[in-house]
Design brief:
It is a single chain. Helices cover 5% and strands 37% of the residues. It contains 3 helices and 33 strands.
Length: 511
């Protein structure tokens, strides 16, 4: 997700507000004692961190697990160990991976913290050292001036699980069987700096497409690594100034880069040591279509209506046209509610307003065609990964609850399957007080891109805020509106998380 730091610096701090949480207000029974001292909804209820790492085999299943479901569903998310030393933002929580492995109609589970360099140093000190997103940047600290938590996304690459941080951090590799942190991912020593929150796996070419951005010229680069982890292409991209792009797209022949009018002022950062982000409504959004293995100077920029885009659904080519489908926000920094006190801007931003949108770029004429696909507030979009870079029909999104739904925090209230061909959708709501996770599509064992696109499964974690029971839900990808075909009872409460992914294959599963 994008970069929102402390924009509440001018609000009075004399009173702490009581905020509605995405639960009934009761503290989670297994949450750390220190969280009860802090009035921040992202440390309570379904957001409260867990305190244990466990391994459990042969989980209880309600229904029957498909016998052609092989692989691991894994999710990353914030799970702070120590009481923060400044106002807490959910991007600050130490990364934790929660993984459920499927094989032969059975499921096992394990979860582990991502032991980043900062995690290790704080563990040795027994307290928080790094400031978070809403603290003052401390440039005297090793590495980043705020804590790089590796808590945002994760992917399966070169036989390892790789975890990423939203603000372009250091990628870390985890053993696919044990989830033990192996160390930094350097692409065999060829990674120049850091890695963005999102990189893309092209399963057709067995390549990883990544990018990075920073506060000095040329401000961005993108690169491609092969299946051995060697960087086979890397190019700088010149931007007008520092930006905060969040995602990247790709087709067979192109990479799609984002220059978005939602960014910080370097003068303010240097003066206040805080990153203050503004949406510049008078500036166009620019998308750069770059030849996949071309030079940075070959990028072709297309001006579009001002917006911010967190996550791309997919991109593909149709003749002279390059198509991008994604979730677009025209209000990435909603107006803060003063009644929410010193956290009001963070609270407003995290609620997330976005909808499905389509952009079309003509590579010969420079023409742009853009417009809404649907108005529903959905995000965290996933497709059948075999169709990455090729025209696809279906996207599986999370319904983001709104104020009208009674939500004041980021909350996933249901699963939506969009049909990009018919323009329709189907939806399954998780239920009152039950909150979901990003739900990747899991192709059936042995499936290829030439098989039916939605012939597979969609998987998510849910947590019931009334009972604190967490489950893993498995849906038939063809018809999610019928509800899950199987439920796996999780052995402990799973806190709210960010991104999830699926890696298939028998070798990922360890008996």
């Amino acid at each position: 997700m994008s970069d929102v730091f402390d924009q509440d610096r001018d609000l009075p701090l004399s009173e702490r507000s009581i905020r509605t949480r995405a639960d009934d207000g009761r503290p989670a029974p297994d949450s750390p004692a220190w969280t009860q001292k802090i009035d921040n909804p992202y440390l309570h209820g379904v957001y409260a961190p867990t305190t244990e790492e466990i391994d459990v085999a042969d989980l209880e299943v309600i229904g029957e697990l498909p016998d052609d479901l092989y692989g691991v569903y894994m999710r990353n998310g914030p799970n702070p160990v120590f009481e923060p030393n400044c106002k807490y933002h959910p991007f600050d929580g130490d990364g934790m991976v929660y993984a459920i492995y499927f094989k032969d109609g059975k499921a096992s589970y394990k979860n582990r913290w991502v032991r980043t360099d900062a995690f290790q140093k704080e563990a040795e000190a027994g307290k928080a050292i790094w400031p978070g997103m809403m603290g003052e940047h401390d440039y005297s600290l090793e590495g980043f001036p705020v804590k790089d938590t590796s808590n945002t996304d994760l992917l399966y690459f070169n036989d390892d699980i790789v975890t990423l941080w939203y603000n372009a951090g250091i990628p870390y590799t985890l053993d696919r069987h044990t989830l033990k942190t192996k160390g930094r991912e350097t692409f065999n020593g060829q990674l120049k700096r850091a890695l963005s929150a999102h990189a893309k796996i092209d399963l057709e070419k067995n390549e990883l497409i990544f990018f990075d951005y920073w506060d000095e010229p040329p401000y961005m680069l993108y690169g491609i690594a092969d299946s051995n982890g060697d960087v086979i292409h890397q190019e700088n991209i010149e931007l007008p100034g520092p930006r905060l792009p969040h995602d990247i797209g790709f087709t067979e022949n192109y990479v799609l880069l984002h220059d978005l009018p939602f960014f910080h002022d370097m003068d303010i950062l240097q003066r206040t040591k805080k990153r203050i982000v503004t949406f510049h409504r008078d500036m166009p959004t620019r998308f750069g279509v770059q030849p996949r293995y071309g030079k940075g100077s070959e990028v072709k920029w297309f001006d579009c209506e001002p917006c911010y885009i967190l996550h791309v659904v997919n991109c593909w080519e149709e003749g002279d046209w390059v198509i991008q489908v994604g979730c677009r926000s025209t209000n990435p920094m909603p107006k803060a509610n003063p009644e929410e006190g010193e956290l009001s801007h963070m609270m407003a931003y995290m609620r997330l307003e976005a909808n499905m949108y389509i952009w079309k770029f003509n590579m010969k004429t420079g023409e742009v065609v853009e417009g809404d696909f649907d108005k529903m507030n959905t995000e965290f979009c996933r497709i059948n990964p075999l169709y990455g870079g090729f025209k696809n029909r279906y996207s599986y999104n999370q319904y983001i609850m709104t104020k009208e739904d009674g939500a004041t925090t980021l909350a996933f209230g249901g699963l939506v399957k969009y049909d990009l061909e018919s323009g329709g959708y189907e939806r399954w709501d998780y239920g009152d007080g039950i909150y979901g996770s990003e739900a990747p599509f899991c192709p059936r064992r042995g499936a290829t891109r030439h098989d039916q696109e939605d012939d597979g499964y969609v998987i998510t974690y849910v947590t019931n805020s009334h009972t604190w029971q967490s489950e893993c839900l498995i849906f038939d990808g063809k018809c999610i509106s019928k509800g899950p075909i199987a439920r796996v009872k999780m052995p402990h409460r799973l806190p709210y998380g960010f991104h999830a992914n699926w890696a298939r294959g028998e070798d990922i599963w360890q008996d």
